[in-house]
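Journal club prep — side note

Before the paper discussion, L.F. wants everyone to see what a predicted structure for a comparable chain looks like in C-alpha cell form. Sequence:
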Amino acid sequence: MQTALENPQPIDEAKLNQFVGRMLGDMGASLNGALVLIGDRLGLYKALAKLGRANAAGLAKATGTAERYVREWLSAQAAHGYITYDKATQTFSLSPEQAMVFANEESPVFLAGFFDVAASAYRDEPKITDAFKSGRGVGWHEHHRCLFCGTERFFRPGYNHNLIGSWLPALDGVVAKLERGAVVADVGCGHGASTILMAKAYPKSQFYGFDYHAPSIEAAHDAAAAAGVADRISFEIAAAKDFPAHGYDLVCFFDCLHDMGDPAGAAAHVRKTLARDGTWMIVEPFAHDRLEDNLNPVGSVYYAASTMICTPASLAQEVGLALGAQAGEARLKEVVTKGGFTRFRRATETPFNLVLEARP
C-alpha cells in the first residue's frame, strides 16, 4: 500500500506559497508572544502609550531598561504589526487600537493576559504529550502557575464590560433580586474577578465564591480585600459537586462547566442548592454545535486551549466526560437537563461567550 509521500499529489505552487506565507506569520506570532510577555511585565507598552512616541533610548529611560534590548524588542514588535514605526521620525508608537489591546487593562479587548496562558501551554507541553500516549488527564492544578493569573487577566475584560451591563440583565428577573438582596454562588470562581464585580454592583446581596484550587481561593481573598468587598464575599475551597447549599437565588458558572469531569453531576448539585425560583447562569466559550461551523479564528483559539487545558482537566476527574471548550449549546443543554433542569435558553451572547440560563 502506497502512502501519500510515496505517491505524491501535484503541488499547487500558488497554494504552497500562500500557506508558507501564513506559516511565516504564525512563526512570527509564536516568537513575538514571548516578547508580549516581556513588554507587559516591564511596562513597555504602557510607557510607550504614555509617551505617545519614542525611540529606543527614550523608552528605555522611561522604563529603566537597557536600550539595546529595547531597540530589538521595538523592531520585532513593529515588524509583526503589534506597534507602529514612523520612518520619518524613526520613532515608535502605539495606535489607539494597539493600545487597547496591549496597554489599557480596562479595555474590553485587552489581550496581553492571554500570553501568560500561552506561556503555560508551552511549559506544560511535556505533560500533555505524555497524556496523549497514556490517555490520562492533567488536572487544572497540575499546570504552570502562569495559567492561573493569565486566565483571570484574559477573562476579566469581558466580565468587566458584559457581566453587569448585559449578561445579568438578560436573565429573567435576576437583577431585581440582586438589587433587593440575593444569595449568590460563583462556582469555579478562580481569582474572584466575576464575584468581586457582582459584589461591587449589588451591595445588598451576599456572595459565595467556590473553587477547588486553594491558591486561587487565596488570591481571591486578597483581591476582595483590595477591592473593599470582603465583607460581602465568602471564598471557600469546594468543588462543583460538593459546594455548600445556601438556597441560592443565583448560581454562576463562568467558563468552567466544560472543564468538569462530571458536568451532569455538577448540574444535579446546582439543582439541589438553588432556591425554589433560583436561576443558574452558565457562561461558556462561544461555539456552534457543528465542527465545521467552528473552523474560524475563535475556534482556533478555543480548540487549542481545549486540547492543552480543558479536555485534560476533565479527563483527570471522575467520569471524565471531556466536553471540551467548543461543546456547543446542544451538548450543554443535554448536560444541564440531565441534571434535573427543565428550562434552558440562550439568554445572550458575545463573539467569545454563550450566556445560558437554566431554571428548575
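L.F.'s comment for the group: The chain has two domains: 13-102, 114-359. Keep this in mind when we get to the figures.
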